[in-house]
Amino acid sequence: MADIAIKNVIKRYGDTQVIHGVSIDINDGELIVIVGPSGCGKSTLLRMVAGLEAISGGEISIAGRVVNRLEPKDRDIAMVFQNYALYPHMSVFDNMAYGLKIAGRPKEEIRERVEKAAKLLELSALLERRPRQLSGGQRQRVAMGRAIVRNPSVFLFDEPLSNLDAKLRVQMRLEIRQLQRSLATTSLYVTHDQVEAMTLADRLVVMNQGVAEQIDTPINIYDRPATVFVAGFIGSPSMNFLPGEVDAKGEAIALAQGPRLRSISQKLGNHAGRSITLGVRPEHLQPVAEGEQDFHLEAGVVETLGADVLVHGRLVEAGAAAPQVEGEGGAGIVAVRLPGHAKVAEGDRLPLKAQDGLLHLFDPESGKRLADV
Amino acid sequence: MVENRPWLTFLQHFVLLCGVALVVFPIWIAFVASTHDGRSLVSGVIPLLPGDLFFENYRTLLSEGMAGSGGGPVWLMLFNSLVMALSIAVGKIAISLLSAFAVVYFRFPFRMFCFWIIFATLMLPVEVRILPTFEVVANLGMLNSYAGLSIPLIASATATFLFRQFFLTVPDELTEAARMDGAGPFRFFKDILVPLSRTNIAAIFVIMFIYGWNQYLWPLLVTTDESFYTIVMGIQRMVTVADSYPRWHLAMATTVLALLPPVIVVVVMQRLFVKGLVETEK
Q1: Does A72 reach chain B within 8 Å, measured CB to CB?
Q2: How far apart are CA A99 and CA B178, in angstroms?
Q3: Does Phosphoprotein count among this protein's keywords (chain A) (predicted)?
Q4: In what order do the strands lie in the sheet with A65-66?
Q5: Number of Cβ atoms within 10 Å of the Cβ of B239
Q6: Where is B32: in which H helix or E strand?
Q7: Domains in chain A, CATH or no CATH each
Q8: Contact A83 B180 (CB under 8 A)
Q9: pLDDT of A78-113, one tens digit each?
């Protein structure tokens, strides 16, 4: 059991800096998920905590002890790898026991601990098998068993579920969550899958280009994303971003595509006259009766998912004759999530209203959050 | 392919059988010759069926050897060859495993330079460097010893290269997992790398055993004492005797005996051997 303090950590490869001073405080027993696109430095950060990468600057301490210069084995951690990294020539039992064997534990104790972990993970019947005789999910469990047996104070997970198929991933996700809860071991979990991140995390770290953009609980990150990047990365389909301007009185937002949003509860006095990026999640655009709408959406592609219907289309000013055609491809395309049996066909015009209090304003220059609307 | 053309099948088998016969015939002759007496072999007509002296000839060879035609008893020569081939094979594997481990897993100055130096020795077979090597061995007083027979042939670029290529395919995560488990470099080598290289080791062992067993020129140079003669050079001495007919029946019996150990090694290790050469994915 331990807390982890990551203080202003930097990673450089030669002249290229890939992590630009990340600080995270992780409490004892917490499960922190680091999420971000490929190449954002999340795995590198995890590997620095693990001791597999040298730390170019800053400080990492585990349970109050600075570990910058410690070997992985001296950090009291265990890691689960993406491709499991099981020793192919050893049985499941030996795979799990190897660390303890090296530590020179007595045979009796090793057997006891491995069997206990195997029972926890429902691997008891498979202890004599070789990794190649196991399915993907079972291998993943063995990899976790190998971590649990050591009884470390920190678990590190490096995209442990990305080699599994979708159904198994959901199941293993739940198992990891339960396991982590029951063991109450401080955990650091890296993934690029935002659903995994949202469901597992006590707190979420969203990383982009070597910087932690936001660290908060999943729901806070969903509700109040700190930057355009976070807003676009968390939530599926992505948040719609519409360039616009707050009017001189700070009472309405004029979108660059034409429509004006008036139905906003909070006065925008502070930002009057300013250019902004308006963020609206697809699920926060409501179909309303003709006349109450903020704007119309001319439906383009319609995706029926069963539970929802996703409509991608262009904004049209209420009453305007024809949709503006601006640019090609995705530019100006807005996505809307409607209930499962909504009847929408390509070319329909949907009257939509942005839900009050669920809009986000960002500075178009810096991408930083300005206000809730 | 699912084809049913009886003639084609027949033709294929016929060609294959001819090929087999061509390869096996000399060995058959050697075996047949080893079961006759000396006189019937020099009479001009080589017999094609085994004679009745099989036990007698082999008993003579193994117990007394061929007094008067050079070389000690055949069992001693077989033993010498075995010691030489085994030391070469085992030594080569041990050295190559370690040097490949160093080259792949450790960052030290001039690492690639070392590798290329090792690699360059591939271009210098024993025969080319035989004079300096002999000089060194002679100065070290290793003539007429098992060390002199085997040590100069142990360094091996081929095996180092093969193990290096294999080590490069071992996923990094495995190394990292071992580090997490607290295994030091030597533990990792012993517990993970060597067991994983098992099939490669078997393949190299077969190749190197036969390489060692078949050495002819080198043992001829470094041994002058009959008790260190190897079987392959022994055979040669048997047929170049002065002032009498070579005793072909005994020479042939020796040949058949010399043939056996490599054949046994190949047969026993064949499965692993093929796996080691073919298998890439673990």
Answers
A1: yes
A2: 8
A3: no
A4: A16-26, A4-13, A57-62, A65-66
A5: 16
A6: helix B6-33
A7: 27-55+65-225 (3.40.50.300), 237-320+331-372 (2.40.50.140)
A8: no
A9: 999 998 899 999 999 999 999 999 999 999 999 999
Q: What is the residue extent of each domain of chain B?
A: 76-230+260-278
Partner B contacted by A195 (CB < 8 A):
no
**Residue B238: closest CA among B225, B251, B249, B227:** B251
Largest separation between any pair of C-alpha atoms in chain B? 75
Closest to A233 in 3D by CA, of A212, A256, A255, A257: A212
Q: Nearest by CB to A72, which of B179, B191, B196?
A: B179
Q: Is the ipTM of this complex over 0.95?
A: no
Nearest residue of B to residue A94 by CA position?
B191
B173 contacts A83? CB cut-off 8 A: yes
Q: Using the 8-state DSSP alphabet, how is residue A368 labeled?
A: B
Tell me, what DSSP letter sits at residue A227?
Answer: B
Residue B177 distance to chain A (closest CA, Å): 6
Size of interface A-B (CB pairs under 8 A): 58
Residue A271, C-beta contacts closer than 8 angstroms, at least 6 positions apart: A246, A250, A361, A370, A371
Q: Between chains, do B174 and A85 touch, taking CB under 8 Å as contact?
A: yes
Percent of chain B whose pLDDT exceeds 70: 91
d(CA B129, CA B150): 15
A104 touches chain B (CB under 8 A): no
Place of tokens 């290529």: B165
User: Does A73 contact B at CB distance below 8 Å?
Assistant: yes
Please indicate if any CB of chain B lies within 8 Å of the CB of A50.
yes
Q: Is A98 on the interface with B (CB under 8 A)?
A: yes
Q: What is the pLDDT of residues B187-207, one digit of tens each?
A: 999 999 999 998 889 889 998
Nearest CB among B174, B179, B180 relative to A87 is that of B174
Cβ A92 vs Cβ B171: under 8 Å: no
A241 φ/ψ angles, rounded to the nearest 5 degrees: -115, 125
**B76-230+260-278 adopts what CATH topology?**
MetI-like fold (1.10.3720)
Q: How far apart are CA B191 and CA A256, in angstroms?
A: 65
